Every structure is written in C-alpha cells, then in structure tokens.
Amino acid sequence: MMIIFGYLYFIYYIGPHYMIGRSPYKLKTLMLLYNFIQILANLWMVQEHISFGWFSKYGVLCSEPFPHSPNTLKMFNSIWWLFVLKIFDLTETCIFVLRKKQDQVSTLHVYHHVSIIFFAWIYLKYILDERVLLISLFNCVIHVIMYVYYFVSAWGPKYQQMISFLKPVLTKIQMVQFIAMIIYGLQIFNPACQVQEKFHSVIAVFFIGNVLIFLYLFYDFYKKSYTTKAKKRIIKLNIKQLI
C-alpha cells in the first residue's frame, strides 16, 4: 500500500509540480533500457511457465486434475519475481511525468498498474493456486510483444512511423487476452471445478469483474484513439478536397 500511495503521490502531485517551468527530460537511454529489461524479464517468465508443464502436463480445464509436483515451489517463486516486475512497471508512468507526457497518465494506465499489483499481492498472500498461473502466462506473452513494440518506438519518430500500424493491433491483442482470461476464470462456476476454499471463489469473482473493467477501458481507448479519430481525419480530408 505504501508503494502504491508513493506512486500515486508522485505521478499526480510531486512529479507534475516538479516539472512546472522545466523542459521535459528526453530519457531515451532510460526508456530503451527499461523496455529491454521488460522484454528479457517477460521472456524469462514465459519460459518458466512453459517449464512448469503448461500445455504438456497440465490442461486448461478447471475440472482436470492439477497435482502438486516438485515444480510447485518453483512456480510460486517465479510468480513472486513477477510481482516484483509489476512493481517495476510503475517506472513507466514516472518516465511519462518526467517527459511531460501527463496526458499518457490516463485512468486506464494508472488503474491497470495499481490493480494488477493489488491482485498479485492477494494471490501470493492468500491463494497460491497453480491453475491461476495460466493467466500470468497469457499476460507475459502479451507483454513481450508490447515491449518489443515500445523498444523499437523509443528509438525515435522515424521508427515510430514505421510501426505505427501496430498500435491498434496491440490494443486488440490485449482485449483478446482479457476475453480469454474471463472465459478461463468463469470455470470457477463449474461444479466440476475443485475450489480449494470458498474465499478463492469470492476473489475470482472480483478478479473477473476487474478484467471486465479492463476490457471496457481498453475498448473505450480503442474506440476513441483509432475509430473516432480516424473518422474525423477522413471527414477533414474530404472537406479539404471539396474546398
């Protein structure tokens, strides 16, 4: 809670006030390093998840047996490091503030980061069910793709222009990820799904609700960024042609 509070205090108060009257920092090297670390860390996490036995030993159906194995402790240790990585993700917003990109400190961006840390903490503190790790596998795969895009973009406007067509595709991929998470999570309501504790079912309901919020926010972002704006550009171009 102190980390989250400090994060919110910096991005909404200390950071913007500090930047008043100052030129935005470029931070190109820092952004490249940050994105490169994210690519390597998420690739490692994907490799770890696959080494646990996903898609070989373990299936995706909640009703299928998921026996404990010598990998169990390794799984939870890796997820602890993933939790640390999610805290490291907060660096991204601080970079936005120092570059005077306050418009990128959106409700979607901040809510996404804070809620993921909160649910990861709940999972490690109270749940530790191996079946949930398929969701973190989805997330790490998407983050590898996403940070490769950010890494290329950080080199400058020339490269941003070259891969600009991928921006709406990334948002669509993230929305597909959320839909997959919701479908996977809804299995908790299947009587054949063995739930360790009733408390876990309650957390699952809140988690699914949170993912639905993500889906709505990302869809709203997609609609405003790539649908409405695109239509306005077409109308403006047509008007110019008529004039």
Task: Outline the structure in words.
The protein has 243 residues and is mainly alpha-helical. The protein has one domain. The protein is built from nine helices and no strands. Helix 1 packs parallel to helix 4, helix 2 runs antiparallel to helix 3 and helix 3 runs antiparallel to helix 5. It is globular, with a radius of gyration of 20 Å. The C terminus is likely disordered.
As a percent range, the share of helical residues equals over 70%
Q: Quick check: average pLDDT?
A: 87
Low-confidence stretches: 237-243
Q: What's the helix-strand series? A: HHHHHHHHH
Distance between the terminal alpha carbons, to the nearest Å? 57 Å
Classify the secondary structure makeup into a structural class.
mainly alpha
Provide the descriptors you would attach to this structure in a database record.
243 residues, mainly alpha, 9 helices, disordered C terminus
Summarize the structure.
75% of the residues lie in helices and 0% in strands. With 243 residues, the protein is an all-alpha fold.
Question: Mind sketching the topology for me?
Answer:
Layout: H1 2-19, H2 28-52, H3 71-88, H4 91-98, H5 107-127, H6 133-153, H7 157-162, H8 166-185, H9 198-242
